């Protein structure tokens, strides 16, 4: 534990029975106490993050890191979006399929997601052509299109991971559309 503190600033002395002891001033003692309190607070925060991640992963049906970029589809009457396929704006995100939602976290240790979408809002899921990125690696891709026109493009170097996400999402979307009744509402 003492290795965490800067011991150079502490003065050492010897007692008459041959044991070494540290002599601290009041200021040094208070400094050490504040460092210990900070470390205990940091430890509690990290434990909370770990418990949160554990809870998410235990309740999630599917999760993992994917590279994500978002696009909006053109509204009727708007010009088509610019071709930006050469723009490298893929960002790593920890994606979790939990219950009726997909959550997008910046990191797996984050306590709250940066974005989310309901499975019921997804109108289409499909494959995208593979692309070549950094160091000539092939990246496999798929997209998720929501009813609001937001398109999540997802990629990974693992074809198995992409195929698994596609299979799970397409199954969920298909089963969700089968529960619709003719007037457009859902069965409860």
Automatic annotation (TrEMBL):
Residue ranges annotated for the PH domain, each copy included: 60-176
Cross-referenced CDD domains: PH
SUPFAM superfamilies: PH domain-like
InterPro entries assigned: PH-like_dom_sf, PH_domain
Record PANTHER family: OS05G0595500 PROTEIN
Full protein name: PH domain-containing protein
